[in-house]
Design a protein that fits this description.
The protein is of the alpha/beta class and about 210 residues long. It has 11 helices and 5 strands, in the order βαβαβαβαβααααααα. The longest helix is centred in the last third of the chain and has 15 residues.
Length: about 210
């Protein structure tokens, strides 16, 4: 069973999350009301995943994520954000959060994000992915049109990467490209290795800077 720590400064929201996660077969091992508590409880309880609000008192979610990722056995972090949390989202990306969801996401997508994070995979909400790409668009790409060839990316891997950068999940990419979901997973693993990044979000960011998306 996946062990999750909830970090959010709103008690009612934490209660709602606990109910949804428990009903979905997730073991909620603790709750934190601010970022400092999240770091302390992550150190003590060793959860598999931390569901992290980005705007909290004492220590914000991005700073807490950065400290958690510095732990000897860091859990995966899935960040929660709202439409007006753009700066916090970009901070969380740099801090190492693996998943990024809006607070109005469905319970099914939330559970999927947690399950993926526990396996070391990332799920980007399409709206969050669009914000990240939109922010990066303000900075001109390197213009390396031959970047794919330089990195050894195949044509199919570039197609997967472009959809990944839009926030599409493996199942969605598989359906769009008419290939097996397992094949998509293999392509994603290869893409991360060739781009020398650790997760899908970092892959999307690097792809944009290289002019691949």
């Amino acid at each position: 069973m996946i062990r999750v720590l909830i970090a959010d400064d709103q008690a009612l929201f934490r209660e709602g999350l606990r109910a949804v996660l428990t009903a979905g077969g997730i073991d909620v091992v603790g709750e934190a009301a601010n970022g400092a508590e999240a770091v302390a409880l992550a150190t003590e309880l060793l959860p598999d995943v931390v569901l992290m609000d980005l705007r909290m008192p004492v220590l914000d979610g991005a700073a807490a994520t950065r400290r958690i990722q510095a732990l000897p056995r860091p859990p995966r972090v899935v960040a929660l954000t709202t439409f007006d949390d753009d700066d916090s989202v970009f901070d969380a990306v740099r801090a190492g959060a693996l998943g990024y969801l809006l607070k109005d996401t469905s319970s099914a997508r939330l559970l999927e994000a947690i399950q993926l994070a526990a396996r070391g995979e990332s799920l980007l909400d399409p709206a969050v992915a669009a914000k990240i790409v939109g922010e990066l668009a303000r900075t001109p790409p390197t213009g390396k049109r031959d970047a794919a060839a330089d990195l050894g990316l195949s044509e199919r891997e570039v197609a997967v990467l472009q959809r990944l950068a839009r926030g599409a999940a493996n199942k969605e990419i598989a359906a769009e490209l008419r290939i097996a979901e397992g094949t998509v997973k293999n392509h994603v693993t290869s893409i991360l290795d060739k781009l020398d990044v650790s997760d899908r979000t970092q892959a999307a960011l690097k792809a944009r800077t290289l002019g691949l998306v």
